[in-house]
Design goal:
Helices cover 26% and strands 23% of the residues. Strand 11 and strand 12 form a beta hairpin. The chain is globular and about 50 Å long. It has a single domain, classed as CNF1/YfiH-like putative cysteine hydrolases (4-Layer Sandwich), CATH 3.60.140.10. By secondary structure, it is of the alpha+beta class.
């Protein structure tokens, strides 16, 4: 992308910012401002979204330009795990299987893709260490928040200085689960029942965002900001796997959450 087009992208690609990450280059992006068409119209950045490769490349370039111009984008091959890695100099074909990554290097922007799962951006600005995590229910349940904090501490971050923001994800009102889903949580800890509200018979409404905040608190993060934006309900603003599934659509787009060290 030319410098003029990058400058234009800074204006055209809206990004949600978290107060807790003020001073740290970051952004939670939605579907606005991209070039993709069809079912994934907008700023689709998913490599597996059955989109034109050139459109995904353009969207990714626009996204990076909107958050950390000239930085090198690093992502992982997300598998709904609790694993976190230190960002390296790999290409898309050789991304490690993990759901979070951290760095203390300048000129690197970390990227997490989501489409209902909760994106987490974390920083210890004083130490110059940042992290990004993809927390669906499996990842959150499996400890991805805790693993990310531990990886940041290993790079020199201080646990009591780390702050985190939880970006747009599916809200409790939109997230219906069955008895078996809830039972998995209750079997581990009966107090986790507070993250479920009674729904129709045999079903519950799961509060993913508060559960992720709970796991961050367990990891020692003292200041967590939740943006409380529902990806399922806001069709114009965000892609949603569950919405696409309910409509029997063939594919669905993904949005980026990005962070770079200050």
């Amino acid at each position: 992308m030319s410098s003029s087009r990058r400058a234009k992208a800074l204006v055209e690609v809206p990004a949600l910012r978290a107060d807790v990450l003020a001073g740290v280059p970051h952004g939670f992006l939605g579907r606005r401002g991209g070039v993709s068409t069809g079912a994934v119209a907008g700023l689709n950045v998913g490599l597996g979204a059955d989109d034109a490769p050139e459109a995904v490349r353009e969207n990714r370039a626009r996204a990076v330009a909107a958050v950390a111009p000239a930085a090198r984008l690093t992502t992982v091959y997300q598998v709904h795990s609790g694993d976190c890695v230190v960002a390296g100099d790999w290409d898309d074909a050789h991304r490690p299987h993990a759901d979070a990554l951290v760095t203390d290097k300048p000129g690197v922007v970390l990227g997490i893709v989501t489409a209902d799962c909760a994106p987490i951006l974390l920083a210890d600005a004083q130490a110059g260490v940042v992290g990004a995590a993809h927390a669906g229910w499996k990842g959150a349940f499996g400890g991805v928040a805790e693993a990310t904090v531990e990886a940041m501490v290993a790079l020199g971050a201080s646990r009591n200085r780390i702050v985190a923001a939880i970006g747009p994800c599916i809200a409790q009102a939109s997230y219906e689960v069955d008895d078996g889903f809830r039972a998995r949580f209750i079997a581990r800890d009966e107090t986790l029942g507070r993250f479920f509200a009674q729904g129709r018979e045999g079903h519950w409404q799961f509060a993913l965002e508060p559960f992720v905040a709970h796991r961050l608190a367990l990891a020692g993060v003292g200041h967590v900001e939740s943006l409380s934006r529902d990806t399922y309900a806001d069709e114009e603003g965000f892609f949603s796997f569950r919405r696409a599934t309910h409509r029997s659509e063939a594919t669905y787009g993904r949005q980026f959450s990005l962070i770079a060290r200050p």
